[in-house]
Structure formats: structure tokens, C-alpha cells
Amino acid sequence: MLRAAFNKVKTTFSGNNNTSFPSSSSDSNETLNIDDYNIVKEGKAQILFPKKETVFYNPIQQFNRDLSVTCIKAWDNLYGQKINTNNSRSKKNRKRRKLDTGEPIDTFKGSNYIRILEALSATGLRAIRYAHEIPHVKEIIANDLLPAAVESIDRNIQYNKVSHLVKCNMDDANVLMYRNKAEKVKYHVIDLDPYGTVTPFVDAALQTIDEDGLMLVTCTDLAVLAGNGYPEKCFALYGGVNLVSHEATHESALRLVLNLLNQSAAKYKKTVEPLLSLSIDFYVRVFVKVKTSPILVKDLQSNTMITYHCSQCGSYHNQPLGRKTEREGKKKLKQIIKYSVAQGPPVDQKCKFCGGTYHLAGPMYAGPLHNKEFVEEVLRINKEEHRDMDDTYGTRKRIEGMLTLAKNEISDAPFYFSPNVVSSILKLQVPPLRKVAAGLGSLGYDCSMTHAQPSSLKTDAPWEAIWYVLRHCEPDKDISKMNERGIGYQIIRNMNNWLPKESNRTKLFDPSKLSFEENELSGKIEKLRKLKIVKYQENPTKNWGPKARPNSS
Ligand SMILES: C[S@@+](CC[C@H](N)C(=O)[O-])C[C@H]1O[C@@H](n2cnc3c(N)ncnc32)[C@H](O)[C@@H]1O
Ligand SMILES: [Zn+2]
């Protein structure tokens, strides 16, 4: 039973063309006039929308909801069931079965246990979908601040016959979560899907989530998180500044949200592990696992960075804010870890490539954006369990495409660059991605595509190598015909000044090794590029984007 005060909202239904169903606010069989509503089917839920729209619903967000259902299932399989079986000390709850691929997997045979809070629920659609579609759910609280929203949630709970699982609640989300905290009520899963920024809800959610619980977080304020106009607002809300005017600003948006979550969690001796972090359409969505661990909190400093990015040529240089070093102890039994201050800065006052001025971004999260095991489980569920369910999971193909790209992203290389942008700076023709990959691979570096932007590459190569490879994609280019005041000319002309000298080649790279012959890396990129999957979404509909709050009048 919900221990928090449950603020019942009386729902009254009347009219001629009546469909009758019980309301949770009363045991009596109240009726509603179905003609007053449009019925929207999404997933396994059917939601009644008042024809006069008073509650928020954005159909474009089906991708967000389909993906969230799949991610909660993956969390349940990988982590949640373990918590539950460990708690009940009954390993009998897990039974082996085989996947289509022949791989064995444990099947959970225990009782339903998952407690979910949808703190900002609007129509209740998401909570009702979770009730219909996610196994092992014990209870879902669908909360909203607005009476019209709670009325709608209540109505839809009844219409979908899920009142045994979904309870609606009317409260400010923070009031509810802090009351839950006081009463020691915890949730395994907390979904925060606000208008704009999630910032006001983060502290309360981090204190109300269970150990190893899953937090699903949306931010739609991309004008602030990824735009050029509000660095001061971005800093105030997220504790850092985005990569203003840079194509990789969408990745910095993800890293800023993860920074906010991690900095907030650290106050409560907790860490936030990103399981999946996606830049989607007009918003970002991160799926993180939260755990109390004072030891891991110590990594926060070295896992946080600032970034210097050149306002002219776009080259970027990351500066961790702390240093973590590990060495073997005397008895070789124990690793000795030392935390110390970072050394810097990593750049001179002016960009050595083009002479431009550096802008400062961050502080933001510097670590991996995804957990491969988790992404693979989401992809497996999407492929095997949701097979032949395109009617229910209308965005299945898009999930497959976006997560396949995310899974293949290299994890230890913040940001990405666009060969289109780099070649246009150098006034060269745009080379195919596989050629750039071949060049970087020949110099000993790794690279991958990114889910966040088409035709772009993440790489662990330094910018010296990026400029060198791109310039030599068109080695015969006659630079004497270039505008001498252009940035591209400066970069090419100065190249010999900053290319690694013989003595430095082991540390950086050996330019003489450059080759554009196909290699393992170019093969990997080309294979992924040729996969017949929906890699990047065209604009889903006309005038798509975040929806405004409904007009209550
Ligand atoms: C973007 S909508 C949620 C959409 C919903 N999660 C879905 O998938 O369709 C945001 C909702 O948050 C509610 N809201 C805004 N501030 C709130 C607060 N402080 N506490 C609770 N609900 C709030 C609004 O009334 C609105 O219904
Ligand atoms: Zn520069």
C-alpha cells in the first residue's frame, strides 16, 4: 500500500453515450461520456484524452516511452532480480532457460517486486504502459501536481483496468519524494520526465531511490543545454557550461546532465553509473544506476573535466579536474590508489593550430556514456522479446538503430568531430568516413560513429592526428591558391611546427605511418555504415518538438 498520503481526486463521469467502469476514487460504478474523449492507443495502453485538451501529451515521445519500457525490462533482468533474490535470500527464484541464440539465461521465478515512481505523469500513459508491459511490477505511483492531470490519470487507470498496480497521487513531486524519504519508502525505478530541466527534482529522487535502482531522466531544455545563447543559465542549472557553437554540443549536453546527477549524488555518498545516455530529437534522456559507495565517490574528481575548445577551428582538449593513480602495494596483494590534484593547462593561451581563442566548457562528466552489457540486453529484448510487436513498439526499428550506434561508440573519448566541418575549414573535399577511419587506424588510433550526429566520428586521436589525416585525404591540394588569412591555410602552413618530432613519435604518432589502405578500423566503420538499420531519424512529423504546457482555460 502506498504509505505516502494519497490525495484522492474525485472523478465524475456523466453523459448519454455511457461506458461504465469503476473509479479508484470511489467503489461505485461511475460512468463517463466516451464522446467527450479521443482514444489514443500507444503500446498496450489506451488513453482517453478530453477533446478539449487540458493535459500534456506528445505523441513524438513514443520513442522515449518504448525505449523506457525496454530499458526497465533490461534493468530488471540484469540487476533488479538480483537485488530481489539477494534480499529474499532465495536463489530458487531464478531458473535457467535458453535464448533464441542458444545462450542460457536466468529466468526470474520470484514474486513481483518492482516499485516504480513516475513523478511527473501528466495523463498516466507512461505509468499505465509500464503496468501493462513490464513484468515483475508490484506497484507504480503516477504523480502529478495538476488536478486536471490527476483526474486524467485516475480515469485512465480505470479505463485500462490497472488499478491493482497503478496508484495516482497529487503532489508536488519533491514533496512526495521527501515524504517518502521520511517514511523510508524507496523505489526501484524513478522516472523523471519534466517540462524543460530535471534539475529541481534530482536531489529528492537520489534520496528516494533504492540501492542499484534505475533512474530515467529527460531534459528538454536543449536551448540551454546545447544552445549558444545561455551559458550562464546552463551553469546555474547544471553546474557547467556546454560546448557553445560546437557540433559536439549534444554530447556535452549529456555530460552536463550526468555531471549534475553525479555531483548531486556525491553529497549522499552515492554514485551514478550511466547505463545509456542518448541525445534524441529535441531532448536528452539518460538511464543511470544509483548506488551508495563512498569509495566510488572518490573517483568523481578525476571523472570530471573542463574542456578548452577553439572558437575558430573547433579543436578541443579535455582537462580532468583530478588525478587517480594506482600502483601495486609492497606485498603485491593490494592496489594502492592515490588521489591528487590535476596538472594543467593542456593548451597555450592561443590555439597552436590556428591562433584562435579558447572557450571553456564544463565542468562536466568525463567517463563512459553507456554500459555495454546493458545496451546489449536492451537490444536483445528489442530484437527477441519485441519481435513481431511493431504494432505495440512502433519505434522498434529506431531503437535498434540508435542503440546499435551507441553500443559501438568508443567509450574513452569524449566528443566527436565532423569530417565535413574539418574539410570545409581546410577547404578540401569531404572524404568518406571509411577513408578518415583508415587514416586514423594506420596511426594507431581508434574511432567510431556516434548516435548523436550523422557523419561524425569519435576518436581517441589527438587533434594533431585529426588535422594531419584530413589534410592528407587530399595531398595534392595546392595551398598556394588558398586565402592566406583563412584558418585552413594557417593550419596547413603551420603543420610542421606542431607535428610530432622524431623524439616525440612514440608518445604521439609517427606521421610516416599514415596510410589510407583499408584496415580493421575502416572495415568496422564501413560495416556499421552499411547495416540496414534506421541510424538517424528524419524529422518525425511536421512541427515536431517539445510540446508546450496545455492551456488550462
Ligand atoms: C512533460 S509532462 C510529463 C509527460 C509524461 N511523463 C508522458 O510520458 O506523457 C510534465 C508533467 O509534469 C507536471 N509537473 C510539473 N511540475 C511538477 C511538480 N513540481 N510536481 C509534480 N508534477 C509536476 C506537469 O503538470 C505535467 O503534467
Ligand atoms: Zn584553433
TrEMBL record:
Residues 89-98 have a biased composition (Basic residues). Its EC number is 2.1.1.216. GO terms for molecular function: tRNA (guanine(26)-N2)-dimethyltransferase activity; tRNA binding. Pfam families: TRM. Residues 83-102 are annotated as: Disordered. InterPro entries: SAM-dependent_MTases_sf, Trm1, tRNA_met_Trm1_C. One of its GO terms (cellular component) is nucleus. It catalyses: guanosine(26) in tRNA + 2 S-adenosyl-L-methionine = N(2)-dimethylguanosine(26) in tRNA + 2 S-adenosyl-L-homocysteine + 2 H(+). Keywords: Methyltransferase, RNA-binding, S-adenosyl-L-methionine, Transferase, tRNA processing, tRNA-binding. One of its GO terms (biological process) is tRNA N2-guanine methylation. Gene3D superfamilies: N2,N2-dimethylguanosine tRNA methyltransferase, C-terminal domain, Vaccinia Virus protein VP39. It comes from the Eukaryota. The keyword Metal-binding does not apply. It is an enzyme of class 2 (transferase). Belongs to the class I-like SAM-binding methyltransferase superfamily. Trm1 family. This is tRNA (guanine(26)-N(2))-dimethyltransferase. The lineage of its organism: Eukaryota, Fungi, Dikarya, Ascomycota, Saccharomycotina.
